[in-house]
Design a protein that fits this description.
4 helices, three-stranded antiparallel β-sheet, 167 residues
Length: 167
């Protein structure tokens, strides 16, 4: 029976280690939106973020303690994110929910940020942002479709957005 005893002891030891192991790497870090200040510049183009219409974006990096990068438009945010070197280092992306916030630079409300990976985007609409064409972001697919019906464009999920969607 020494073999059974050793096997049970080894099994108990492995289960104990598994229960005590740090699984924080498997959990997604959830960041709260950081207010857009009048002096904030877009990480990609350097333009002042709050001077332009349309949805904005915030992106949190995995390293550097969750360093935040702010963007003047969802187009600039995706331009940065879709670079493979950047994509693998991003822990979270937030965008404005345009169904709750009117389109305009003087109406930016940081209470209306949503998780970009769960959002719906309209590309190719007549509405413009800081850099011209941008992607309107919505929490609900039905709101994105209503926007596309009114202003043109195509509704995409986060995973469907690619470089071609930005132009």
């Amino acid at each position: 029976m020494p073999t059974l005893s050793k096997t049970l002891t080894a099994l108990f030891f492995m289960l104990t280690l598994a229960a005590c192991s740090d699984d924080s790497a498997q959990k997604e870090v959830i960041h709260k939106a950081v207010a857009m200040e009048s002096s904030d510049e877009c990480h990609l183009c350097g333009m002042l973020i709050t001077h332009f219409d349309g949805p904005k974006g915030e992106l949190f990096r995995k390293e550097q303690g969750g360093k935040i990068f702010k963007f003047c438009s969802t187009r600039d945010m995706f331009s940065y994110y879709l670079d493979p070197e950047n994509k693998r280092n991003v822990s979270q992306i937030l965008v404005h929910d345009m169904s709750k916030m009117p389109w305009g630079s003087d109406s930016i409300d940081d209470k209306h940020f949503i998780d970009a990976k769960a959002a719906w985007f309209v590309t190719g609409s007549e509405k413009t942002g800081a850099m011209g064409k941008t992607l309107a972001s919505f929490s609900l697919q039905s709101d994105a479709q209503a926007f596309a019906n009114e202003f043109g464009g195509k509704v995409l999920s986060f995973n469907d957005v690619n470089q071609d969607s930005l132009w």
